Amino acid sequence: MTVSRKKLVLVGNGMAGVRAVEHLLKLAPEAYDITIFGAEPHPNYNRIMLSSVLAGGASMEEIIINDLEWYRSNNITLHTRQTVTSIDTVNRKVVSDGGISAPYDELILATGSDPFMLPLPGADKEGVIAFRDIKDCEIMQETSKSYKKAVVIGGGLLGLEAARGLLHLGMEVSVVHIHHYIMERQLDEAASAMLRKELEGQGMKFLLRKQSEAILGKKRVKGLLFADGSMEDADLIVMAVGIKPNVALAKTGGIEVNRGIVVNDYMETNIPHIFAVGECAEHRGIAYGLVAPLYEQGAVLAKRLAGAATEGYAGSVTSTKLKVSGVDVFSAGQFSEPEGSRALRFQDEIDGIYKKLVIQDDTLIGAVLFGDTSDGAQLFSMIKNKETVKGKEKELLLGISADALSSSGGGNRLEAMAEDEIICGCNGVSKGAIAEAIQSGGCTSVGEIRSCTKASASCGGCKPLVEGLLQLYAGDAAVTVKEGICGCTPMSRDEIVAEIKRMELKSVKEVMNVLGWMQEEGCSKCRPSLNYYLGMLWPEEYMDEKESRFTNERYHANIQKDGTFSVVPRIYGGITSPAELKKIAEIAEKFEVPMVKFTGGQRLDLLGVKKEDLPKMWEELDMPSGHAYGKTLRTVKTCVGSTFCRFGTQDAIGMGVRLEKEFERLNAPAKVKLAVSGCPRNCSEATIKDFGVVAIDGGWELHVGGNGGVHVRATDLLCVVKTEDEVVEWASAYLQYYRENAAWNERTSNWVERVGVESIKKALEKPEERLALQKRIQTTLSRMTDPWKQIVNEPELRKNFEPIAIAQSETV
Ligand SMILES: Cc1cc2nc3c(=O)[nH]c(=O)nc-3n(C[C@H](O)[C@H](O)[C@H](O)COP(=O)(O)OP(=O)(O)OC[C@H]3O[C@@H](n4cnc5c(N)ncnc54)[C@H](O)[C@@H]3O)c2cc1C
Ligand SMILES: NC(=O)c1ccc[n+]([C@@H]2O[C@H](COP(=O)([O-])OP(=O)(O)OC[C@H]3O[C@@H](n4cnc5c(N)ncnc54)[C@H](O)[C@@H]3O)[C@@H](O)[C@H]2O)c1
Ligand code: SF4
Ligand code: FES
């Protein structure tokens, strides 16, 4: 007998509601038929990260939490662009503005908040927006292309993050704030003043104690008029003056509503079978506006719906971290010194550090940190757990180092934390999930934990706790990855890449300055690696630094042991013609090339060439560079495949030529070699290549991480695909994922060995992830030009190859 499932309807496809559903699916996967209505056109995305999207730190694709495939695979019916407009609590059904009706046994309202829009005259003009969703983000990005001046009303978290994003987009930005200091809901005056100074340094202008009166302009906004009679020009006005819970729908069902939808400790409204969760819900008089408490609510609701035991939701202490690059601000609990409390302060004007701890009855109840927020997550944990701080107040004020966390005291505290305690509030990642990623998932760095669990992927405030857990569970393995990339820095590859991204550092010099390099000029290890990471992260803006490259890459030729060079023209797939061979032979004769040799990758190598002959030879060859010297795609070796071989099942030559044309000039962490074989006899030795393609009946096997060098390594099978297009798609995704995640100079064989092929399969399994990676590699490839074409055509560059004239002087 089949038991019919109950019908669960969720209204609001946002962070809180979908998180509750995710929990429920884990607890009782078979219990409900689930239907979700979302007013927005997108699948569930990370609203928090909109600030990062605006500031250029993430793409729209990267902020999707659950893609459409997730809904499909969990049998969830999703109605996007459908706003539910009424609830019939008697017949238990909801109806959307598009006329979709859905019956329910249980109903969750997770309608979030609406941004509060100041009811100013002119507020309906074009160019007046809020900052709440993807659409707002897109409007800001679009506006910045044609307009110059933005005004943000509201100097709170949202206003400042919007202002930072607009600066990044190249707009002039003024922040209008009603109080005499910004972020008064999170900071005291001292920290706020330091923050303002820092943001002014980044180009933000502040108009404090300003009451907005009217928005000026005809159809489109022109300016903002204040109550004191002054005005500010504006092409765009972003209102960020707070939010109000979205209770409109609840009201249609006669559900009890105060500021938000009133719920008890089990997220139940006053109407049976109707629950509310997230920003729209009001629990014990509080409607929260941060995700961490909303995720806690979601966990309780999921247990309730699954019939699992739960003590209910008891309210949350909150903490916030401003997500503005180059500024570290943290605030938690009661920072404004309530009666009966005492405060400890530390201020270092030179390094721009401010700390304040608020203590009551020997427990920490609030904290404000500016300039150095590394202790934020630990302090917050102490506040939440009401730990006694008696006798160690000053120690806390002066800083809990990451090492102290992992030493017995800190380690014990992390050890003592409950498994389900949330470590990363932004992404709702528990201690247990991180422990599992380390212990079972084999993660050995914060970067890997981030990829695996999303912990530390948003505001970054939890990073010290994640590091502490890494040291607790991975022990020595974690210590090794914490080592710096060279003697110039204690930072690991992942940390450097994350900081370059977060702080938008754009040159080798800037990275060294900002990240506190111990040797001003760096060394031969860090300079080329930074050059690579910057080029990989900012393919469209970064100008490759020639001086950070090794000799071979500077001269675009392999230097030989006698000081001569080699010339290797590109011969796609190893396929040439009599005419091409004739031309190469004539040039070899003309320039008296002492040796012509076939390389291991089926190319022709003209060896023993004088440096000064290089430009002329390349000019006469008029062929693309074979890049036989660089950290790039070297060759795609092919067998004859089905074109001539009787065993061949596919066109190995065509596939190889296509791959070589697709990826030539690729800038990679280390050299990359490919091969294509036309059948499993594998004559092109594809299973010892970085990416090997082996034809089978009706498709292609894709192999990765092979090496035929000093340490021979056979490839791991990545997947089997049917078409040539799929081969290119997977190759693109795989190579870009390697580019983005491997350390500079790390061959794919070492990288695959280190991270495990399973983690790569997981990262590439979703088609949209692959397409996003493919798009990024295409952006990079589209910027790559042939080095020899450039040298041949630019007299300045040709000069580098002239024989060095030795200046002589005579004394008479
Ligand atoms: C730019 C920005 C940055 C932020 N940064 C942080 C941060 O760093 N840290 C932090 O903790 N919080 C941050 N927040 C706040 C955080 O994003 C919210 O607290 C969280 O998204 C609220 O989740 P929710 O599910 O309650 O609401 P939402 O995520 O808003 O989801 C509600 C969804 O319901 C839909 N909806 C509403 N009514 C209906 C209806 N009748 N029918 C169908 N669909 C409906 C809405 O369109 C919306 O998609 C930020 C918010 C913004 C805008
Ligand atoms: N990093 C983060 O944690 C983060 C980032 C963005 C948004 N959020 C959340 O999103 C929500 C919205 O953020 P928010 O900053 O809009 O809300 P908020 O209520 O925290 O701050 C609004 C700010 O606007 C100011 N203000 C009010 N009326 C004004 C007026 N007429 N003129 C000028 N200033 C005025 C207030 O003094 C206040 O500082 C909040 O829940 C916030 O916590 C959090
Ligand atoms: S791999 Fe197969 S198709 Fe290619 S040459 Fe060898 S036997 Fe022929
Ligand atoms: S707490 Fe914000 S990223 Fe983890």
UniProtKB/TrEMBL annotation:
Binding-site list for siroheme: 683
Q: Where, by residue number, does [4Fe-4S] cluster bind? A: 639, 645, 679, 683
Swiss-Prot/TrEMBL keywords: 2Fe-2S, 4Fe-4S, FAD, Flavoprotein, Heme, Iron, Iron-sulfur, Metal-binding, Nitrate assimilation, Oxidoreductase
Instruction: Establish whether keyword Iron is in the entry.
Output: yes
What GO molecular function annotations does the UniProt record carry, in alphabetical order?
Answer: 2 iron, 2 sulfur cluster binding; 4 iron, 4 sulfur cluster binding; flavin adenine dinucleotide binding; heme binding; metal ion binding; NADP binding; nitrite reductase activity
What does the record give as its pathway? Nitrogen metabolism; nitrate reduction (assimilation)
InterPro entries (alphabetical) = BFD-like_2Fe2S-bd_dom, BFD-like_2Fe2S-bd_dom_sf, FAD/NAD-bd_sf, FAD/NAD-binding_dom, FAD/NAD-linked_Rdtase_dimer_sf, NasD-like, NiRdtase/SiRdtase_haem-b_fer, Nit/Sulf_reduc_fer-like_dom_sf
Q: How is the cofactor bound?
A: Binds 1 [4Fe-4S] cluster per subunit.
Q: Which domain of life is it from?
A: Bacteria
Give the NADH-rubredoxin oxidoreductase C-terminal domain ranges.
319-386
Q: Which residues form the FAD/NAD(P)-binding domain?
A: 7-283
Domain Nitrite/sulphite reductase 4Fe-4S: residue ranges: 630-768
Q: Where is the BFD-like [2Fe-2S]-binding domain?
A: 422-471, 485-534
GO biological process annotations for this chain's record?
A: nitrate assimilation
PROSITE patterns named among the record's database cross-references = NIR_SIR (PS00365)
Q: Where is the Nitrite/Sulfite reductase ferredoxin-like domain?
A: 559-622
The record, for PANTHER family, names: NITRITE REDUCTASE (NADH) LARGE SUBUNIT
Family note: Belongs to the nitrite and sulfite reductase 4Fe-4S domain family.
* Protein name (record): Nitrite reductase [NAD(P)H]
Species per Swiss-Prot/TrEMBL record: Paenibacillus albidus
The lineage is: Bacteria, Bacillati, Bacillota, Bacilli, Bacillales
